[in-house]
């Protein structure tokens, strides 16, 4: 794992046969500061979700011609005088073995009927199914029925996915307000011209 702003890589995990459901993004590499912090820039305990912040000599200076974005993403390090951290926007949590698990993006948090919903958390549950290769959840809405969660899944090659069964699976693992109202099976997820997921 390694964003451009802290290139080339900041964490490392050797993939094994045991990594069938979730592949961790790994443990920090040498000379990299890797912090999981809450909204007040305080470290969170093992197993608790927070935002990933990165520090070290490999950090970029900022975004060329974008002082606003630089100020938003590169913040003063509360644990190291005079140093900075890069706020990745990625939600992660520490695993007991000292590795990080990626949970989704912080900018994919939505509000539905007064409840904060982490779309990445729902996607992670859908991806635990052995017949699902890819999953995306989005907030949809129309004027008549209000807002609702829609899940889109791509089956593993050769698998047949039943939308009803996927919803039932989600209902076992998630609170009711986080269960997608509809699940749609697609042959592939739409992407932009840059190859990024088109939500």
UniProtKB/TrEMBL annotation:
A Gene Ontology BP annotation from the UniProt entry: enterobactin biosynthetic process
Pfam hit, one: AMP-binding
Superkingdom of origin organism: Bacteria
Sequence ranges assigned to domain AMP-dependent synthetase/ligase in this UniProt record: 1-63
Alphabetical UniProt keywords: Phosphopantetheine, Phosphoprotein
CC annotations in GO: cytosol; enterobactin synthetase complex
Domain spans labelled AMP-binding enzyme C-terminal: 121-196
Protein name: Non-ribosomal peptide synthetase
Organism listed in the record: Rhodococcus opacus M213
């Amino acid at each position: 794992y390694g964003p451009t702003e802290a290139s080339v890589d900041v964490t490392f995990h050797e993939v094994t046969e045991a990594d069938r459901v979730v592949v961790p993004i790994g443990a920090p590499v040498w000379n990299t500061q890797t912090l999981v912090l809450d909204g007040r820039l305080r470290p969170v305990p093992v197993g608790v979700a927070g935002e990933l912040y990165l520090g070290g000599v490999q950090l970029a200076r900022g975004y060329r011609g974008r002082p606003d974005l630089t100020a938003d993403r590169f913040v003063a390090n509360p644990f190291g005088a005079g140093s900075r951290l890069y706020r990745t926007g990625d939600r992660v949590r520490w695993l007991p073995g000292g590795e990080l698990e990626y949970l989704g993006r912080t900018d994919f948090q939505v509000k539905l009927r007064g409840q904060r919903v982490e779309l990445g958390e729902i996607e992670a549950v859908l991806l635990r199914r052995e017949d699902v290769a890819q999953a995306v959840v989005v907030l949809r809405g129309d004027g008549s029925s209000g807002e609702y969660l829609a899940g889109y899944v791509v089956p593993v090659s050769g698998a047949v996915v039943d939308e009803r069964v996927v919803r039932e699976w989600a209902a076992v693992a998630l609170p009711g307000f986080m269960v997608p109202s509809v699940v749609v099976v697609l042959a592939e997820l739409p992407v932009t011209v840059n190859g990024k997921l088109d939500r």
